[in-house]
Amino acid sequence: MLPFVVIVAGGILILLAVVQAVLAFRATGSILLALLDLLFIGGPGGMLIYTGYWLPQSEITKHHYPRIIAWVLGGIAVMFGFILLRDLHPGVTVEWANGTQAIALMLGSIGGLIIGIEETKATIRTNQLEAYTQRLETQEQELKRQNEQLERFAGVLSHDLRNPLSVARGRLKLAQADHDSEHLDAIGTAHERIDTLIEDLLTLAQQGEQISDVEPVDIGPLSSDCWATVGTGNAALETEAMRPIMADQERLRQLVENLFRNSVEHGSTGSRTGADDIDGGEPDLTITVGELDDGTGFYVEDDGPGIPEIDRETVFESGYTTGDGGTGFGLAIVKEIAGAHGWRIRATSSESGGARFEITGVEFAP
């Protein structure tokens, strides 16, 4: 209803402007006075028409219209008071014509309309900000609750699971001392897998915290150190020259080690538990670490079979694995560490068709 009334009021003002301009021209013969009447009376009328068409498409909903109407009535009341005081003032001898008073009241209503719209928009933005703040507070409380659950979960993994696992391992050694059985060896392998799962879950639970303290880290020597601690079988490492990056060294080490393990587990035909050095001949897998061409970060790639394009998003999900011996948490840990640094990681294909992981958003050391 309000937009229609505003459009009608604008049309009346434009019509009044035309009539006033014609009367002014006939009375004075001045084109300038006629144009001024068109401008000062018709201009607000055009603005009212525009406002009437704009209101239904704006963020201002119908239940805000009474607020705007109140401001319009307030503008009319202020202008009416001004006219009344002028008429009652003993020093004023020149009387305003009825048309002039009507124009003054109309201008008062336009002023009230503009103020009402702006004040309503400010109120809407304030309400939106309060709602957004409330959502943030709710999310903060939920995040706090989830962190407490993660801490309890980590405690269960550290003590309640590892303690009985240690007992089981001790009993297994006693049994193996008395008996030689492949079934006992299978139990030992299962124990090792349980321990690996616990370690990965603990790491995953602790990697989401944002990193604030960083230092320059030369990723070339760090990659070599990681290579020495990861069972790489008949694989080879190549590191290209790159600038030091700003990172948490220990968590960056975990990121690189997990990427190496992933490449070896899924790209090598040899065993990841084999010797670290290549026993003659060509390696069956080459892993390369280097700086991205656009200078936004670094990459770790291999020349293995690669990751199918359909799986390049899901590989970072917790528990996702295509290998028989994998826990499915390695790349999830990598993503958490990257996110804690404020980096982004994506899986793509290397030039040889192997797996390539690009870490971007990295800050390089001066």
From TrEMBL:
One of its GO terms (molecular function) is phosphorelay sensor kinase activity. The chain crosses the membrane at residues 31-56, 68-85, 97-117. This is histidine kinase. SUPFAM superfamilies: ATPase domain of HSP90 chaperone/DNA topoisomerase II/histidine kinase (SSF55874), Homodimeric domain of signal transducing histidine kinase (SSF47384). Residues 126-156 form a coiled coil. Residues 156-360 form the Histidine kinase domain. InterPro entries: HATPase_C_sf, HATPase_dom, His_kinase_dom, HisK_dim/P_dom, HisK_dim/P_sf, HisKA_4TM, Sensor_HK_Regulatory, Sig_transdc_His_kin-like_C. The keyword Phosphoprotein applies.
